[in-house]
Amino acid sequence: MAVNESVDILNSAYLAVEYIDSFLPDNPLQQPFKNAWNYMLDNYTKFQIATWGSLIVHELSYFLLCLPGFIFQFIPYMQKYKIQQDKPETWEKQWKCLKTLLFNHFCIQLPLICGTYYFTEYFNIPYDWERMPRWYMLLAQCFGCAVIEDAWHYFLHRLLHHKRIYKYIHKVHHEFVSPFGMQAEYAHPLETLILGTGFFIGIIVFCNHMILLWAWVICRLMETIDVHSGYDIPLNPLHLVPFYAGARFHDFHHMNFIGNYASTFTWWDRIFGTDYQYVSYQEKEKNQELLTEKKSN
């Protein structure tokens, strides 16, 4: 009975969003995107799209999303938004990060990407334009993927902090006490595989079109680069996502080492009390700000 009620609620929600969507103006980018998508289908094989297309989407998204944070270090005005202002980025750290990053991308992640075609064939996932889900379905699916990945990340990330195994795997990622965007995927190869598994679980659950693979890649990179950016930028649109952790939340994990283990949302840390040091730290900062204001007045 409860299952039927849940299905009815989801169907009603879907119809409501579809009804609202019918009143929205046509997206001017839809036709050019449709033409580009169909051109891709006509000129490349499924294997080329799934493999090299996925690699291009990942690399372009990753380094383009890292670019703003990289530029911020050269803009004095942006330094007031840097969370750990006493620990600036250095060329030495960034160069070391880039070398490890390229190794992980092409020696660890690329072989996994090569399996994308076989994954889509095994589960009979379509590529054609006609069966591409609407934008609101894609957003809902990406959110579902994020919820699943966040749960996986919390428990496996917390396990990687166990004193018996930390120094062998996760210590690599914690080389930088003050993170920066490019460091998001700076990790031991085993960590890339262990925590990266969470990325694929949501795909197995929700994927009904090739476009979701790419949309979820972009969403996940957007989130992880943002929380590793080291900057708490005002009017960040990601803060509109319910229970979104953000840069300050994860920056504290790198600074403090203990707590704040989740990747995207705050609920697992709240449920298990692993955010108590972060909450205490925030309260101390607020009290310090109040004292500073009183003295200045």
From TrEMBL:
Could you tell me which Pfam families the record lists for this protein?
A: FA_hydroxylase (PF04116)
Domain Fatty acid hydroxylase residue range list: 144-274
TM stretches of this protein: 60-79, 100-120, 135-156, 192-217
Entry superkingdom:
Eukaryota
Keyword field contains Acetylation: no
Would you tell me the Gene Ontology cellular component terms? membrane
Query: Which InterPro entries does the entry link to?
Result: Fatty_acid_hydroxylase (IPR006694), Sterol_Desaturase_Related (IPR050307)
**What are its GO biological-process terms?**
lipid biosynthetic process
A GO molecular function for this record? iron ion binding
Annotated compartments:
Membrane
The alphabetical list of record keywords is: Membrane, Transmembrane, Transmembrane helix
Instruction: Write the protein's name.
Output: Methylsterol monooxygenase 1
Species assigned in the record: Terrapene triunguis (Three-toed box turtle)
